[in-house]
Design brief:
With 386 residues, the protein is an alpha/beta fold. It is 32% helix and 26% strand.
Length: 386
């Protein structure tokens, strides 16, 4: 598969650069999904368009097991600072997370597999809106699942570019690899008044200070230290002039966790921290938005991916994924079938390293055939399993 992937390198680069020049955000992936669907139809796939608003589901083969390959397609609302000939032509939108490459490599794997005699079915899930959610707080994965994208799937795999690792390397391990996530939104209410007479008010900033201390003590004092977790404050907003104490302040943030068993305890501890405002004479409102579960790689699936990578690239090219509590909605797929996500080294040799989501992010396109071959070969191996 690696040899065949290198043979289509020009097509992989052409796809990737086209998607990079024309980034689309969220669910507004009309051009991208149209191109993806048309390419898959030309390859002989049975294609469903508009799954989960602008997702594409394509399947090939008959009977047997079903292996799904997921690729996210959406870009970020970032103004690109690169000056490459393939830089974004859409001001304020950029593929700064490698989803252009994910889409191109999945198309490449689809092309390779379309030429194989498969002992089962391969289903491609081209997903919109991984980076954000819609007005109902649903991501592209959740929307696609609601429309049957994972029905009958036996295994599901995906990959993500890693600009910190050299080209030719693969990261894979079983267990938690990214965090479950909620966003939370609070309003602390007191009693406003003149800044010269704080004794006649219930100062919401004073309440806020104690609530912040409570929030910052949750992970270190209320959660088992062997359980990875984060409670972070991302926004505080209140007041409108320097000599008036307002009647309320707003604050919001995120919580992250690796073990689903501590999800509700984290929420309860956040409520307890906000209760401090009531103890001190104020009040509060608090709501949570569920973002998605942790991404937990299945051991059997991870072992097959690891074996494939070692045989294809050499044992020295395979490493464990650096664990993070960053969010990845691929975890939603893993709730329905055993699966795993691996990482693909895409570090640009001789260039300054820019992390994911940076306005100067780019990747080494020599990695594209490697990721393509990994997807295609791994899918074949799962179809051949008893």
């Amino acid at each position: 598969m690696l040899k065949q992937s290198h043979a289509i390198s020009e097509e992989l680069i052409e796809w990737r650069r086209d998607f990079h020049q024309h980034p689309e955000i969220g669910f507004e992936l009309h051009r991208t999904s149209k191109i993806v669907a048309e390419e898959l139809e030309r390859m002989g796939y049975r294609v469903r368009r508009g799954v989960g608003k602008t997702g594409v589901v394509a399947e090939i083969g008959e009977g047997g097991k079903v292996v799904a390959i997921r690729a996210d397609m959406d870009a970020l609302p970032i103004l690109e600072q690169n000056e490459y000939e393939y830089a974004s032509k859409t001001p304020g939108a950029m593929h700064a997370c490698g989803h252009d490459a994910h889409t191109a490599m999945a198309l490449g794997a689809a092309l390779l597999l379309s030429k194989e005699k498969l002992p089962g079915r391969v289903r491609f899930l081209f997903q919109p809106c991984e980076e954000t959610t819609d007005e109902e707080n649903k991501s592209g994965a959740q929307r696609m699942l609601a429309e049957g994208a994972m029905d009958g799937v036996d295994y599901v795999i995906a990959q993500h570019v890693d600009p910190a690792q050299p080209v030719g390397t693969i990261g894979i391990n079983a267990g938690p690899c990214s965090g479950g996530v909620d966003n939370w939104y609070g309003v602390i209410t007191g009693k406003g008044g003149h800044g010269a007479h704080p004794d006649q008010t219930i100062d919401p900033f004073h309440l806020l200070a104690h609530v912040i201390l409570g929030l910052n003590g949750i992970v270190s004092r209320r959660i088992n230290p062997f359980e990875p977790a984060v409670v972070s404050i991302g926004l505080v907003n209140g007041g409108f002039t320097e000599n008036v104490i307002p009647d309320h302040v707003n604050l919001s943030g995120t919580l992250r966790y690796a073990n689903p068993d501590i999800h509700e305890p984290l929420r309860e501890e956040i409520r307890r921290a906000f209760d401090i405002a009531k103890t001190m004479g104020g009040d509060y409102e608090l709501r949570f938005e569920y973002g998605g579960p942790p991404m937990v790689n299945d051991k059997t699936v991870s072992d097959v991916i690891e074996a494939t990578a070692r045989e294809m690239l050499g044992s020295e090219k395979v490493h464990e994924i650096e664990k993070t509590l960053g969010a990845e909605d691929f975890g939603v797929f893993l709730d329905l079938a055993p699966g795993a996500m691996f990482t693909l080294g895409t570090q640009k040799r001789g260039h300054e390293e820019y992390k994911l989501h940076h306005p100067k992010f780019d990747l080494d396109e020599r990695a594209l055939p490697i990721g393509t071959a990994m997807l295609a070969e791994t899918a074949k191996r799962f179809l051949g399993r008893e």
